[in-house]
């Protein structure tokens, strides 16, 4: 199953290009055993990690755990990861079911909390819970001071709004719809290779410069999930035609 990934990275090298990747992990709130395992894995792989933290329930112990640890950037994961969608609609915290001003006020409260908890580590980037956000809320983000937005899809251009960089995830290793466990090596690799092929060939208007995003959720991982992350990151990081990026590089905030 790994042969297609190896072949695609060989194609990037033959073209004289470097395939870029980034790693986003969602739903951090506390210094749990799962977070400790995530941090240990990141250190062993020696690649950057972007940690999406939910501001409202975030504990000071999380900040203490990350203190002094390089290679981990914090970005904002909504406010409370609370669903405000009407019954029967897909879950959404930052949707059109509430006034934009109310959503914006919560986001600014969340930014202030993360700035206080993670000084110098928190970047002005937003990851909407469930990867959903109303267009009207997106319109407000640059004026609120946000410089990046990350959801789940291949972008067609670098900026979703003037001054607002889009950098999304493309490889979700969890099968949320059925098992809520590891989606399987085949499914995860298919997602990775598909995005890499689209980037390399310029298919369907996909932006070739968008880093391929690995999406994980440390609190939901089974053993197969942990094993895949270790194998995927190690296998790509060890290739001359691949490079893993920090959040500041991904969002142009360096």
List the helices and strands and how they pair.
Elements (H helix, E strand, L loop, with lengths): L2 H12 L4 E10 L4 H13 L3 E5 L6 H7 L5 E5 L23 H18 L4 E5 L8 H6 L7 E2 L9 E3 L2 E3 L4 E2 L12 H17 L10 E5 L6 H15 L4 E3 L2 H4 L4
Parallel strand pairs: 1-2, 1-9, 1-10, 2-3, 3-4, 4-5, 5-7, 8-9
Antiparallel strand pairs: 6-7
Provide structural commentary.
- The protein has 254 residues and is of the alpha/beta class.
- It has helices at residues 3-14, 33-45, 60-66, 100-117, 135-140, 185-201, 223-237, 247-250; strands at residues 19-28, 49-53, 72-76, 122-126, 148-149, 159-161, 164-166, 171-172, 212-216, 242-244.
- α1 (3-14) runs parallel beside α6 (185-201).
- Strands 1, 2, 3, 4, 5, 6, 7, 8, 9 and 10 form a 10-stranded mixed beta sheet that branches.
- It is globular, with a radius of gyration of 18 Å.
Characteristics of this structure?
254 residues, alpha/beta, TIM Barrel, 10-stranded mixed β-sheet, 10 strands
The total number of structural domains is 1
How would you name the CATH homologous superfamily?
Glycoside hydrolase/deacetylase
User: Can you write the helix and strand succession as a string?
Assistant: HEHEHEHEHEEEEHEHEH
CATH class category: Alpha Beta
Q: What is the strand content?
A: 15-25%
Percent helix: 25-40%
User: Using only CA atoms, what is the Rg?
Assistant: 18 Å
Average pLDDT metric: 96
Low-confidence stretches: none
Structural class: alpha/beta
Instruction: Kindly state the number of beta strands.
Output: 10
Largest sheet descriptor: 10 strands, mixed
**How far do the termini sit from each other?**
36 Å
Envelope shape: globular
């Amino acid at each position: 199953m790994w042969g297609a990934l190896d072949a695609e990275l060989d194609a990037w090298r033959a073209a004289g290009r470097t395939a870029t990747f980034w790693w986003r992990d969602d739903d951090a709130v506390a210094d749990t055993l799962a977070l400790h395992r995530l941090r240990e894995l990141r250190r062993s792989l020696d690649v950057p990690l972007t940690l999406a933290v939910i501001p409202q329930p975030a504990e000071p112990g999380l900040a203490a755990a990350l203190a002094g640890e390089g290679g981990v950037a914090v970005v904002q994961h909504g406010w409370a990861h609370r669903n405000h969608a009407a019954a029967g609609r897909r879950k959404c915290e930052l949707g059109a079911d509430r006034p934009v001003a109310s959503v914006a006020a919560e986001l600014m409260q969340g930014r202030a909390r993360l700035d206080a908890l993670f000084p110098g580590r928190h970047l002005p980037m937003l990851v909407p819970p469930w990867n959903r956000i109303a267009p009207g809320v997106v319109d407000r983000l640059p004026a609120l001071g946000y410089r990046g937005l990350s959801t789940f899809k291949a972008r067609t251009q670098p900026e979703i709004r003037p001054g607002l960089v889009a950098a999304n995830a493309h490889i979700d290793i969890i099968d949320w719809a059925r098992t809520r466990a590891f989606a399987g090596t085949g499914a995860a690799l298919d997602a990775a290779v598909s995005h890499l092929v689209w980037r390399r060939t310029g298919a369907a208007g996909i932006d070739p410069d968008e880093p391929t995003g690995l999406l994980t959720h440390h609190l939901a991982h089974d053993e197969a999930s942990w094993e895949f992350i270790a194998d995927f990151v190690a296998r790509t990081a060890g290739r001359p035609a691949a490079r893993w990026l920090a959040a500041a590089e991904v969002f142009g905030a360096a």
